[in-house]
């Protein structure tokens, strides 16, 4: 007899889980709150300009390849993938570092900054590659049910790396502050300060320098469309503009959902929506985690985002650009330690039309600017405009051009929008940080401890924040659901 599962939300993890369940002959129905699938990986199109509203970095191509291979497909069946050359630029107050598309080019750039540093870099990346192999092929494929999952012959040999930090490891090998910042940057994808992230996570440096930075033609949303098409090919039913009001429980078991006063029943319920919001769809007695639990957790930052259409091509930029021309430590403190609007923030600028002509009209540029900020901050139009002026001043100074006169339109997105559009706890953008005490079995569970037949997936559970981990999270929870059946 065919088993059924209702999936709440349609981000990467939900679509991943839906595909795996459907492949195993489950009847799967997705309910998505917003007008289109994708969750935080939404797309915004205006006047011929195309923006990825959320994730814009395509790292770890092997994880995407493995996902589609599980369905006898290839990424090329759905989208064109190009390796970026260079991968990205980092703007400092007195220099610009260009990260090339090969270790040879990156080593040459490191030598330019600090003679002799390429030798230390090769050694560092070799260790990072070892950790990547362990992490991707061993650790992240565990469902986070027991601390014993972390105990393998490989991790035992590297146990010290779980108690040292990325920051200490990098600073031990490199003295130049620009190189330190360059090597600490990738762990920001994990949502925590380098000084709070276990050094084992240096595998992100191999993901960066070793595997490279890629771009799906048409933007990251092409991956969402690919997964949506795959899900439909497998028989998944998808409803958009379909917010779920309640998770129904009977005799201690999840039996379906309530939407607009109508019951939809299923054998299992899986939520890929924000974990804390998902539990709020339950009566309080059925929730695993109290308000105090969430308040004590370290969340990844929120973001202030600007989506801008320019009616000219811009100079001195690449597809991905990081502006590290201010105090990294101060900005981190103002996100995590004493949360407030940052004094002088680092920021990220993405111009996909530099390498992909489909993303903007001829002779124009699509610009997406991101300022990492603390969660739960006051969010007003006045503050958004203040920070827009601040980062535009710095962008123009560092790139040597006036760009404000070429702005056709500007849209903003911040804390209030994360809460309203994604039901995001405190307006977080990336979920829960991957600190030592929030790793693997110490993260919120894939399976509810209080309600049978109820499951969770996504960036607040295992493996953690980021797009590749979301794909893996969907696979892990699908395997758990099938095993429990």
Q: Could you characterize the architecture of this molecule?
A:
The chain has helices at about 10-25, 60-70, 105-115, 115-135, 155, 165-175, 175-185, 205-210, 220-235, 275-280, 290-295, 330-335, 380-400, 415-420, 465-485; strands spanning about 5-10, 25-30, 45, 50, 80-85, 90, 95-100, 215, 235-240, 245-250, 255-260, 260-265, 270, 300-310, 320-325, 345-350, 365-375, 405-415, 455. By secondary structure, it is α/β, with parallel strands linked by helices. A seven-stranded mixed β-sheet has the order 7-6-15-16-17-14-18. Strands 9-2-1-13-19 form a five-stranded parallel β-sheet, with helices on one face. A three-stranded antiparallel β-sheet has the order 10-11-12, with no helix packed on it. Strand 1, helix 1 (about 10-25) and strand 2 form a beta-alpha-beta unit.
Task: Describe the structure concisely for a colleague.
This protein is of the alpha/beta class and 485 residues long. The chain has 15 helices and 19 strands. The strands form 5 sheets. It has a 7-stranded mixed sheet with strand order 7-6-15-16-17-14-18.
